[in-house]
Amino acid sequence: MKKITLGVIVGNRAFFADSLVGEGRKRILNRLHGWNIDTVALSETDTKLGAVETWADAQKCADLFRRNRDKIDGILVTLPNFGDEKGVADALRLAELNVPVLVHAFPDDVEELTSAGRRDAFCGKISVCNNLYQYDIPFSVTQSHTVDPDSDEFKTEMTKFLGLVSAVRGLRRARLGAVGARPDAFKTVRYSEKLLEASGISVSTLDMSEVLGAAGKLADDDSRVKAKLDEVRAYANADGVPPRSLVLIAKLGLVLGDWMGENDIDATALQCWSSLQQNYGVNACTIMSMMSDKLMPSACEVDIAGTVSMYALQLASGTPAALVDWNNNYQNDPNKCIYFHCGNWAKSLVSEIKIVSAEVLGTTLGPENTWGAVDGRTSAGPLTFARVDTDDRHGRIRTYVGEGVFTDDYLSSMSGTKAVVEVPGLQKLMRYVCLNGFAHHSAMVKANVADVVAEAFEKYLKWDVYYHQG
After folding, report:
1. Strand partners, 465
2. What DSSP line would sit under 320-339, residue for residue?
3. What class, spelled out in words, does domain 175-468 have in CATH?
4. Residue ranges of the domains in the chain?
5. For residues 73 and 93, what is the distance between their CA atoms, to the nearest angstrom?
6. How far is 425 from 407, CA to CA, in rounded Å?
7. CA geometry: angle at 377 spanning 372 and 382, to 5°?
8. 79-122: per-residue pLDDT in tens?
9. Disulfide check for 370: which of 82, 221, 358, 421 has CB 3.0–4.6 Å away?
10. Residue 36: beta bridge partners?
11. Domain range 5-172, its CATH number among 3.30.930.10, 3.40.50.2000, 3.40.50.300, 3.40.50.10940
């Protein structure tokens, strides 16, 4: 993940011991800095104890946050004691940062419920949240109402919050690349650029003819082509691939990489068939796999909404995501199915990766023209899946998200990238997908981040969310 900067608001109420606030502020900041998180917070010379209590404190805090608007990605509100709910809410309203907010409260010790030791943050957190709700400021809370900042639980909560912040920040400023036209039959992947733009997601387009034209101008002995060829060979087993096909794959990777760099593109969706095979002679899967493995997700069939789905999962987890088909039932098990795509999943998602000719596409386009697919299977582990689609008829962005597991169940030798997954209530999910007009594509990541993604979508991006929980 890119480094994250948090604004920190320390709440205070004068009835309670100053020592709790000063000590609590230091503990929180030390903990965050220990995780290499940058912070923007009032100093102890700016306000009493570097905390926010009065209207004047709120103004100072808001002014500090506004001056650091380009740095602050999220805000942590921490309550070493009851805190002043108005001060916190006013600071956030005046700052107008529109970033995720986490409200945290310190726990009390029943042995320390004296005037010098009691915090009452348990109660104060309710008041702060009440005011934020009244002010219509979106906010998040910890799973446990109070959490010791030195505990493993607090580390888990902050890891989740950082994933949430990363997802919201990344999606609100995402620059996606649509390369080529979608396959004519795939009306399922149509989308609204305007609805995405309204959420801060921009789409740049590149005609496939420009890609093929630029690749055709590169000489085989060009030093950059040779370097890219070495990178491809180092990435996956290419022993059976014709040398000419590998050169074409390397040139394709260079052209796409140059265009992405020139336009600051974060992620792409490619016209992966059939123009590429008919007019150039290879599959794009290997290059797409390599980009996804470098956290530049690349989706098939110009499925930009699928790219958004992949990018969201990647941002939340910090690990590569893949685009998948809900492809096959698994025998008679109602909660299992097979994920599949011709072969562009990131190397880190599969085992024993190798470059092959795409079996399905090769039946009509010729196996000699479909070299460049990736073959491999995802091993057992955690699964989060998600899908983003634009509902143009209702002017909304609609999503679903949920969790399951990858399994090691038997799978016959299907060429491409594949996995067996188990999702509780899969039949219910499939009915929802069908009845609500979602695409046949979904995105997956090998991590448990469904709650993070769902909260990012619904609370901060204001998208419709179906959170499937079996």
Report:
1. 399
2. -EEEEEEEEEETTEEEEEEE
3. alpha beta
4. 5-172, 175-468
5. 16
6. 16
7. 130
8. 999 999 999 999 999 999 999 999 999 999 998 888 888 999 99
9. 358
10. none
11. 3.40.50.10940
